[in-house]
Known about the structure:
Layout: H1 14-33, H2 37-40, H3 45-54, H4 56-70
Amino acid sequence: MNNNPNNPFHGLKLETILVKLVEFYGWNELGNKINIRCFNFDPSISSSLKFLRKTSWAREKVEKLYLNTFSN
Length: 72
């Protein structure tokens, strides 16, 4: 993530992004939209953050969904 103010994620933590998506969709729907194990089997914010921090393709999908869901 770039520290550029033009970056849509500037100032947003991954945890904040994930929490907002879970509050909006719930784990079941989030797991349907992004089919990764940490969303579908015994999901938690902690385990999902660990996975997303290590797996760039999954993080990119989460960030894209966040933008598509919450961009004005």
